[in-house]
Amino acid sequence: MSENEKDTKNITYRCPCCFNRFIDVTIEKDKDGIYRCLKCGFNGTIDDVLNAYSNFRSRYKLRGTRITLDEQRRM
Amino acid sequence: MIVNIIQRPEKSEAYEFQRKVSIDLGLRVTIALPASLIEEKEVVDLVKSDSEKYGHEVMLWLDAKGFPWLLSREDKNKSIKDSIERFKTVFGYYPKAAGHYVLDSECIKIIRDCCPEIRTVIAGCFEEGVRVFHGCNNSWYLFSEGMSWTGWYPSRTHSLRPAADEDDWSGVVAVPHLSRDLVQAYEGRDDFFASHMPNVQRGLGNEGRIHEYDYNLIDQYRMQDDFNGFDSYYQVHVSSWWLKGCPNVIDSDDITRENYVETMKYIARLCSEGKAKGMTLSEYGEYYRKNIPIGGQTVGVGKDILYGSGKQYFWLFGKSFRAVVDIFQGGSIGDLRPYAGRYEAVTGLDSDKPLMGSYPYIIQSQFRTGVKNHCCDGSRTTLIAEHNGEKLDMCFYPTKIKEVFRNGNATKLVLEPVVMEFNDGYRIKVRTVYVFTDDGIEIYRQILERSEGECEFCEYIKGCYGFTEYPEEMRGITFGVDDVTQEFKYRNREVSREGGKCAFAEIPQVTARVELCADDAENVTAREGNLFEPYYLLTAKQKINNAKETKVCLKMKKIQKI
Q: Does the structure's ipTM exceed the value 0.90?
């Protein structure tokens, strides 16, 4: 879990499998500490969820790259 | 570029934060006062004081009875009129701007009839529809596709269609509720990829405090100035709900607020350096009226700033059509909205399509298959080059935008050439040039180099019509070549004519006729599909011989409804 995601606010987590297809499906933790999706077979711990989010981000290869106006003109 | 910051007031610490950010940065904003809060004295007093002190504009957010475009005609009338009159009572003047996520033409007419002072409206969510519906777990019933990504003059009969002329105009300037990424708006759910920093976080487009995309998107809109003879428009509209404890955002509130502030600082810096101009909503409406003629064209160029795919899209928004050219797919047309048909629709309880605010397409390659991948292909355009029995499809030849020229009410798009190489070594180097006019789309294929030998070009337009990803009833459509006409019956029949001039399909369901015209074609055909391939196909075959260039024209016209 990254430092950013340790906040204590009431976050609604989304099923990472559904979110992989850009679909928001909220998931809640069961009594045994496992998150289970009502719409697909995903089940996992909070670390599984957050790791999946991290993997999700990897599709955005330019997420950390500043592309200025001039650079966009040249793209 | 012109920037407008919209804030929706409420009694909350998050709004206080947001309000203070704009004040500290010296940004004038448009305060969208919700009609539902107009009796809240504390909120209204603060709005009044901010308006006087900082020159903010107060506009009316038409939420008195929920989403105004989905109400019955009677409720639209009552809630809009009541809200405007209450505004007048509280502020002592009529608002100059109003809006909601979407306004249909009926809402706009009511606004204009009861309050001519309103000159600018927020009236649509650019390309928010099918993908956002699915993305929100099939629960966000807002369909607003086929519209402008920037300002437009809404017509009287469909709020998303731009007016063709003064008589056709509803009387207001409209803007979309957010500025959205001109690549992601075509490829995916664009609510994540917008001038809305917490929504970028919701789409995991940031990594904590690293949020370069927010800046990159602003610069994507700055770049649009290069292609139009007027300023582009960027609108930030983040309600304060997103800035405190928002469950949709996985980052802490500190990060959310810091990303928000940094992005606003960037906008303030652009304004202070003269690289952007801050305007309120009604000021932008005035600017638009003075600088942009009714019936003119607007160009949008989207270059991928998130995935690193190198893809580009070209958008053309004009009075006769809106076209999206998919530059990566050989410069084919991936989305086409036939505004020339002047399809009429309102939303709300009295409509026969009560939810459907989108302007219908006749080509949509994302929703309707596009290039073949596991069964037949779907709606798209392409060039098929044939040599020695082998066919090559230009959709598989990615290219780039070389140049964009504007000349009055015509726009020329020149693409980088592609080289198509056949199995026997025959090569042909082709450059595609589009000329977009009020009459249609001229498609030129310039042959820059080629090997010795015969080659034939087939211009290929596979169309349908629709509002979502699902096929609609195609019976009622007629298709044919020149004066030969057939009724669409899903029976794979074809009309073909040697030396024909014009293949066409008439789609009364969306009051549009589409034509593929070629003066020097060897053969022109129109074909119907079947229930498993519910499309019409128009083709024009041209032998290359010694030609340096081929030309076809894609035209759209109005026809009567069934």
A: yes
